[in-house]
Amino acid sequence: PSRGETLPTPGGVAPPTLEGVPPLPQESGSRGASRPIRQLSFAESVAAEGTLTHLVINRSKTLCYDANDDGISEGLTLVVEPRDADERLVAVAGDIAVTVYEPPLQAQQTDPGRPLAQWTIPAAEAMRHFRRTSRARGLHFVLPWPTAAPGSRQVRVVAQLTRFDGSQLEAEAVASVQSAE
Question: Is the pLDDT of residue 93 over 60?
Fold first, then answer.
C-alpha cells in the first residue's frame, strides 16, 4: 500500500481493544535493553560479603571423575557452596584455592599430608562458575589433573575462599573416584 492508504481488515474483524493494559513506552534505549546493568563497587562487594559465614563442599557432586571408565581419574569436579548463618546460598566473589591431598592414613591424623594437586582460581573466573538453579547451586569447577592422576581411590580436597578484605574461609571433604556409567 502507498502512503496514506489503510489496509483492509480481513473478514471485517476489528482488532481487540486493550482496556486496562498500559501502553508500551515510546522511547526505548537500544533494542532489547530494559535498563542499564550496574556493577557493584568495591565497598558494596565487601558489604555483601558480610552475610557469608562458611563454605560447604557438596560431597555428592565433588568427585574424581573417570570419564572413559579405565579406572584412572582424569580430574576433579568440585562444588563449593558459600553460605550464610541460616545455610542460604550466598553469591560472593573471592579467589578460590583448591588443594588435593592423599587421604589421611588414620582418622586422628592432623597433618594434611603431601599435596597432589593445586589450583588457584581468581575471583572474576570463579564467579563465572557460580550457579543458582534448582539443579546446580554454588561454584562448580571441573579441574583436570595438572600432572598424573593420584594412585589412591580417594583424595582429600581443601577449598579456600579469600575475600576482598583478605579474610579466608575453608572447607574440606573426601572425594572418591567415580567411573563413567
Answer: yes
C-alpha cell at 74: 582424569
What are the tens digits of pLDDT across the range 25-84?
555 444 444 555 555 455 555 555 558 899 999 998 999 888 888 878 899 999 999 998
Distance CA 91, CA 3 (A): 55
Q: For residues 115 and 107, give the distance between their C-alpha atoms in angstroms, rounded to a whole number.
A: 18
Neighbours of 140 (CB within 10 A): 16
E-assigned strand segments in the chain:
54-57, 63-66, 75-83, 95-101, 115-121, 130-132, 137-144, 154-162, 168-179
Cβ–Cβ < 8 Å for 154, 177: yes
pLDDT at residue 30 in the model:
45
8 A C-beta contact, residue 52 and residue 83: yes
Query: What cell does 135 get?
Result: 539443579
Strands 168-179 and 63-66: parallel
- pTM, two decimal places: 0.67
Residue 137 above 50 pLDDT? yes
Grid cell listed for 32: 532489547
The full 3-state SS of 6-48, as one line of letters, equals CCCCHHHCCCCCCCCCCCCCCCCCCCCCCCCCCCCCHHHHHHH
Work out the widest C-alpha separation in the chain, in whole angstroms: 89
